[in-house]
Amino acid sequence: MPPPDVVLSAMATRHCKRAFLDRAVPRALLAEVLLAAGQAPSTRNTQLWQATAVSGGALEALVAALCAAFDGGEPPHLEYPGRPPDLGADVERRARDAGSGVLRARGAAVSDATARRALLRDNLHFYGAPVALVCHLPGTAVAGTFLEMGFFLQNVMLGLVAHGLGSCPQASVAGYADILRKELAIGTDRLIVCTLAVGYPDEAAPVNRFVPQRAGLEEFTQWHGW
């Protein structure tokens, strides 16, 4: 087993990467991470999560289709509720700060509508990552199934960190679920949960040095019996 400080460091330092090097990710390496991530817990060992890995020409075709829809004015539509209707003031503030922080790290003003649109479009390019994972569940998925997908996805992201890779989970790309299904032959009986941009991060890019402020321990933990 790795030392506790190594595991905790990976958990504490992982954050979304939005700029990647032009360096291929070996399929064998990605397979190793996915196989380990599959040890995530699930109810009665059902393991309902699935991941479709895309790279090379298939990824280029997918990006072209996504950008054509975006440029044509097709709005994204997530097939499940992505967040509660009322997040509360503190949570809304964190969300705004994260969004504005990414824009500023890209050298853009928060009020710059053109820059915001460029960020959305870059998202559909998977931020230049050489690999995209499309994560999906059965169309009958319920809240508990999404919880299990979260276990799996976090395992994937931490496994990537262990190999010097970075990632960025993207619910917004799942807003074009029909395009993902068509381009990747994913059945209509599958619910697209999110995509994950995967690659070797460009640590020289300012956007990759932006880390949003996290809630303090006292904000999300209650103690009894100590």
CATH topology: NADH Oxidase
User: What is the C-alpha radius of gyration, as a whole number of Å?
Assistant: 18 Å
User: What is the share of helical residues?
Assistant: 40-55%
Look at the structure and give the mean pLDDT.
96
Q: What's the CATH C level?
A: Alpha Beta
Cofactor: FMN
Keywords: Flavoprotein, FMN, Oxidoreductase
Protein name: Nitroreductase domain-containing protein
InterPro entries: Nitroreductase (IPR029479), Nitroreductase-like (IPR000415)
Question: Characteristics of this structure?
Answer:
226 residues, alpha+beta, Nitroreductase-like, four-stranded antiparallel beta sheet, NADH Oxidase, 4 strands, flavoprotein
In short:
The protein is of the alpha+beta class and 226 residues long. It has helices spanning 4-13, 27-37, 56-71, 89-105, 113-124, 143-162, 177-184, 217-220; strands spanning 50-55, 131-138, 166-170, 190-199. The model has no long low-confidence stretch (mean pLDDT 96).
